[in-house]
Amino acid sequence: MQVIATAGHVDHGKSTLVRALTGIEPDRLAEETRRGLTIELGFAWTTLPSGQEVSFVDVPGHERFLGTMLAGLGPAPIVCFVVAADEGWRAQSSDHRDALAALGINQGLLVITRTDLAPDRVDAVIAEARAELAGTGLAEAPAVAVSAVTGEGMDALRARLDEVVAAAPAPDPDARIRLWVDRAFTIGGAGTVVTGTLAAGTLHRGDRLSVHSSHDGKSARGEAGSGEADGVEVRVRGLQSHGETLDALVPVRRAAVNLRGIDADRLGRGDVLLTPGAWHLTTTIDVRRMSGQGFADGPGGVLVHLGTAAVPAHVRPFGQDHARLALARPLPLAVGDAMVLRGGGARAVQGGVEVLDVDPPALTRRGDGTRRARVLAAMPRGGDLAGEVTRRGALAEEIAHRYGLTVPAVLPEGVERHGQHLVAADAMQNWAERLTVLVRSARETDPLSAGVPDKAAADALALPAPALLDAVVQAAGLLRAGGRIREEAATQGLGAAEAGVAALEQRLAGAHFHAPEAEDLAALGLGARELAAAAAQGRLLRLEGEVVLLPSAPALAMRELAQLEQPFTTSQARQALGTTRRIAIPLLEHLDARGWTRRVDAGHREVVR
Questions:
Q1: What is the CB neighbour count within 10 angstroms for residue 129?
Q2: Who has the most CB within 10 Å: 16, 375, 437, 473?
Q3: Burial environment of residue 243 by CB neighbours within 10 A (0 to 12, 13 to 18, 19 or more)
Q4: How confident is the model at residue 448 (pLDDT cuts 50, 70, 90)?
Q5: Pick from 274, 308, 338: which residue ends a domain?
Q6: CA geometry: angle at 391 spanning 387 and 392, to 5°?
Q7: Same domain, residue pair 20 and 142
Q8: 411 lies in a domain?
Q9: What CATH number should be reported for the domain holding residue 595?
Q10: Which range, 280-289, 443-452, 495-504, is most confident?
Q11: Integer CA distances (angstroms), 124 to 70, 84, 136, 147, 226, in order
Q12: Range of the domain at 212
């Protein structure tokens, strides 16, 4: 399946050509029939000689309807550029050519129509059209001369269309959905229906989608969407294409989508259906000029066309080739998107741009604009993953995909993967060094400190995501436990408490299960804070009831308990360990918690084998 749009000067036979190819009248409005002039987008379809089905989007050629033309052309990947043999190249031919160049469309045909009126001019008109199309993607497109009235050349046109469709790049059926709405209406018994060109991704009946509006104010039935629809979640009730009801639609295809959850009068052209949570909606983007007028010489205000949307924007030039656009409303944009600019109230196309950054940095200092211009000038087409990661220090892989950045299996040099984040290697090293200094400084200030709290560390490092703290701790060779970060080994001692802890260690080494009484600890100058610091360093083990032992005590206790007849009582355990009930009970509960022993009943335990 493919979708083909027409383009060309008014009254050069675009609608007549579509009608001759498909047998369907693309002009739907009574006014179009009365005036013999295409005003709105028209839609038709046919089957080519190969059996391939194609859809046609017929666009108006008059200069007054350039915005409507762009709405039809924007989502379509292939174009039939029409020039009449009896008139040749005309003013709106140039407007449509500029639109094609701006959108980067490079697939299609050059069709010379009305050959029955000027058969001797065909070669000259083809040469003229090729000269005008020089520098665009259609400069070398196949040319076909036809008369829709006599039928001459129509079979050749169908054969050429088959070739162009067969050569078109395959769309991605697994891509996220971004379906630009070109019509919205109500059908009795079905409800709200919108139509658009499905350029990528697959739509299924029952899918949930998010509606986002590109307009303010009330809907005008296919001309302007309603800002009230922004962010509404809807469900796909039904799907149709070419009049056929389907359970799923794959690209590229014209789609009629029956929606549940929104009224048709809240929708209109320029609105968009999105995969929920998969797109970055933005009002600020950095762009590169791909065709047309330079930014430094252009207007400060432009109308941005993307898909079927048209949104005003303010331009901040970074020289002729790069600029920052501030959009009047958010749009779901991705790096690499092609957009058309129209400026200063003019009807003609100002030029085309490629989106380089959908989440650019703020420019607040003197010289930021000049520095940003240099970065953009060096940025490759399709965006710079390494540059974006480096600028932020880290970027969630999900966000990178949302921005439209490609994340290769082999990451660029200087970029590391830590969990769900892409991290700049230099940033990771810097964070690790700063965390080490922070932890050591805290210990020097307070030797009894149990470590730097996680939140304090994350705040001090200004980490882009708290989830990165583990990776930074590991890179720094530190230990994270109990919500705090400290050094793996005690390198600074315990300050004034060091002598008391050392004495207690020596005492317990000779009597493993003889925990000191409260007065003994007080005599050693060891209060709760000193004991907590020693425990955090792994030098002491604190049990319930302020029972203090060496960290080796549980393993030594298990050696003795394993020799008892199983199961055993608390009294038997106390005797085997040569200790008191005050010490035995917290120690046994500690062993239970570690899964080394377990209760058999209220009075007995056994060693877990």
A1: 25
A2: 473
A3: exposed
A4: low
A5: 274
A6: 125
A7: yes
A8: yes
A9: 1.10.10.10
A10: 280-289
A11: 28, 12, 19, 17, 48
A12: 178-274
